[in-house]
Amino acid sequence: MKEGERKEERERNKNKEGEKGEEGREGEERRKKQGKKREGGREGRKRRKEGGERKKRRRGKKGSKKERRKMEGRKERKKKGGRKIEKEGRGKRRKKGKKEKEKYGRRKERKKKKGGREKDTKRREGEREGRKKDKEKKEKGSNEGRKEKEEVREGQRKEGRKDDSARLPPLTPAPPSRADFNPLCRRAFTRFFCPACKTLRSSRCKPRIAEAPPKGGAQESPGRACAFAHAPACLLPDRSPGERERMCALPRTGLGEGRRRLILGMKEWWIQVGLLMLPLLAVYLHIPPPKLSPALRSWRSSGSFFTYKSQNVFFRDSPGAVGSSDIVVLLHGFPTSSYDWYKIWEALTQRFHRVIALDFVGFGFSDKPRPHAYSIFEQASIVEALLRHLGLLNQRVNLLSHDYGDTVAQELLYRYEHNKTGCIPINSLCLSNGGIFPEVHYPRFIQKILKDGALLSPILTRLMNYFFFAKSLAEVFGPYTQPSEAELWDMWTALRTNDGNLVADSLLQYINQRKQHRDRWVGALRSTSVPLHLIYGPLDPVNPHPEFLRLYKQVLPLSTVTVLDDHISHYPQLEDPQGFLNAYLNFINSF
């Protein structure tokens, strides 16, 4: 038995050794195959390295990449025999590459991955659609519930029942988003928001209205809505944005909340200032004209008035030298009056038999009607009416004019030259610093605004004051011949008499009339045989030197000219009265 068992064990061991041998052989074969693969991989690596070294060598050579590729392609074609062989070789390589990829299953793996991604995206889209549907169902259900509750409450109100908050739960509207609230309406919102019950205020919230609102503001916790709530339009979520902005008193802007509050504060501040300024403005517009100075009062008392077409016109007529029969009529400028001649008045009375000056309508102490169409033609007719009133219509007179008066003198000269009925017989004409040529006349900036300002002109005339008037008038005086404060005040007083400041814009239409009737008035100066003279202050900014003087001598070569000192400006009779008087008397004595 023992020997038999031993034999069996030996046979078993032999079988095991045989099996092990077979397994060893198979393992050796596998190892050989793996070694071959490794050797193939090593060879491939060596080839790649060699190819990389070749590329590096090629890059090191001179010439661009395109040139190198062309040269390499030509060499290969020469070796293989043309392009066809090269293309065939490329096609074979591509086929080999596809077979290898199919062997290893790379393409299949990619397809599997793509299919998985598509399934994931479809699954996510389905989940989103499901969520949307759930939300829509919830919203529909809540809206239906609200409608039912509202219908029940409306029925209770009709039957006269009381609204019991314990029996019926309060409405719970969906909390509005920030887009549903206008930050500027925070005050309006807190006015309707009950901080105690956190509802919009209604009839049952009356005892709680006095309580302070929460610090966070109504926007942060809008709470529930009371049954009888009346919220401002901008706070109702069911309103469209257009309706909210239309019904809200404070529209939405692109500014931040802090800036909006600042704007609200500024608006309130400006409203308060405006309310305070209204009475002050009313008082300012009704300030009476200043009192006359003693000099101005004596000037007025020495004159008198005559009526021209229901208008009272101030004039002064002083008798002079006994042995002379000459009469001189003085015509003032804009915006002053006959008081401009006060510095040379006494000297003129010693030379002339009668010295006459007047305030044109709209100036000085004469009437200043408004609304009224002021014109140069009307002022010339007033001068004729004055001489007719004094009984001097048939006597020859000497005209001495300045600025605005120069244009009136031109119209009188035109009438005299054309033998118009009622014209004044003119013995001589002396002009001084007037804009007789529109092309070289430069009115001040304020004059341009007043004459062409339309709706702005009446406002500016009402806002005119002494300081503005004094500054603008001082600009047309020379730097060393500025008027004194007393003189400026007298001029301002004469202007303010009878509200003359309110008709300044109407009077300034004479500038446009000069342009319109240039040929008529300049032609009268050209064609006249009356002795003509010009006294000129060269520093005048309105009729500047040398443009004005050059044109005057060119157009009127027969006229004589006296140019005063270089520092004399637009008002020569006030700036240099002695020089002005000497120039005029020399002219009168020359013929």
UniProtKB/TrEMBL annotation:
Residues 44-68, 90-116 have a biased composition (Basic residues). It is a multi-pass membrane protein. Residues 1-43, 117-166 have a biased composition (Basic and acidic residues). GO terms for cellular component: endoplasmic reticulum membrane. GO terms for biological process: acylglycerol catabolic process. InterPro entries: AB_hydrolase_1 (IPR000073), AB_hydrolase_fold (IPR029058), AB_hydrolase_sf (IPR050266), Epox_hydrolase-like (IPR000639). One of its GO terms (molecular function) is monoacylglycerol lipase activity. It comes from the Eukaryota. Residues 1-181 are annotated as: Disordered. Keywords: Endoplasmic reticulum, Hydrolase, Membrane, Transmembrane, Transmembrane helix. Residues 327-577 form the AB hydrolase-1 domain. It holds the Pfam family Abhydrolase_1. The chain crosses the membrane at residues 269-287. PANTHER family: HYDROLASE, PUTATIVE (AFU_ORTHOLOGUE AFUA_2G14860)-RELATED, MONOACYLGLYCEROL LIPASE. Belongs to the AB hydrolase superfamily. This is Mesoderm-specific transcript like protein. It comes from Crotalus adamanteus (Eastern diamondback rattlesnake). The lineage of its organism: Eukaryota, Metazoa, Chordata, Craniata, Vertebrata.
